[in-house]
């Protein structure tokens, strides 16, 4: 069966930065394959476009430029946030995140965003709210392991549902 709308895709892949020799960013192998509903609202459209029509057993390899993936790294998305916004009570003051850790930030729009702490001082955290893969050209290579028609519940939910009923 080929990948088309309302199918469940099982694949293994290796994701590298830039090209086939770039640093490895993610691996989904046959022991822990990536299984998803096609066409998913949560996956990159450019990724889904490139695997459309592939059949079970087919190999794939393609690049996705940063602009079609998570966009360029935007300096305006690196913000200084007063440290008191992260303190609920005095006991939590010592648990403020350190450089290299992630924090959840609620934006002016009321939506929650995850950001990487890139600097910290007594009064502020500098948080990079860009996606972790922003500014990176992506290189995917892998194999389509299995494609099947989605079940009615999966179509209604627009997501893969494991055989034991757990929903993803």
How large is the radius of gyration? Answer: 20 Å
Largest sheet: 5 strands, antiparallel
Count of individual beta strands:
9
CATH topology name of the largest domain, in short, is Chitinase A, domain 3
Pick out the low-confidence regions. Answer: none
Distance between the termini: 22 Å
What is the H/E order?
EEEHEEEEEEH
What share of the residues lie within helices? under 10%
Indicate the structural class. mainly beta
Q: Give me the number of helical elements.
A: 2
- Whole-number total of structural domains: 2
* Portion in beta strands: 35-45%
- The average pLDDT value, as a whole number, equals 90
Report the top-level CATH class of the largest domain: Alpha Beta
Shape: globular
CATH architecture call of the largest domain: Roll
Tell me what you see in this structure.
The structure is a single chain. The protein is mainly beta. The chain has 2 domains: 88 residues, Chitinase A, domain 3 (Roll), CATH 3.10.50; 54 residues, Beta Barrel (Thrombin, subunit H). It is 8% helix and 38% strand. The protein contains 2 helices and 9 strands, in the order βββαββββββα. The strands form 2 sheets. Strands 1, 2, 3, 4 and 9 form a 5-stranded antiparallel β-sheet that branches. The radius of gyration is 20 Å and the shape is globular. The protein starts with 6 loop residues before the first strand and ends in an 11-residue tail after the last helix. The model has no long low-confidence stretch (mean pLDDT 90).
């Amino acid at each position: 069966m080929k990948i088309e709308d309302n199918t469940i895709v099982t694949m293994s892949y290796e994701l590298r930065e830039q090209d086939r020799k770039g640093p490895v960013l993610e691996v989904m192998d046959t022991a822990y394959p990536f299984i998803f509903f096609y066409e998913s609202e949560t996956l990159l459209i450019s990724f889904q476009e490139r695997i459309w029509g592939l059949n079970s057993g087919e190999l794939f390899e393609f690049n996705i430029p940063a602009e079609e993936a998570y966009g360029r790294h935007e300096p305006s998305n690196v913000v200084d946030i007063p440290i008191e916004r992260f303190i609920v009570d005095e006991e939590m003051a010592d648990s403020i995140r350190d450089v290299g850790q992630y924090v959840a930030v609620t934006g002016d729009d009321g939506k929650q965003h995850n950001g990487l702490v890139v600097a910290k001082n007594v009064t502020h955290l500098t948080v990079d709210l860009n996606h972790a893969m922003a500014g990176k050209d992506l290189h995917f290579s892998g194999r389509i392991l299995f494609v099947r028609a989605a079940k009615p519940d999966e179509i209604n939910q627009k997501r893969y549902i494991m055989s034991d009923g757990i929903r993803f």
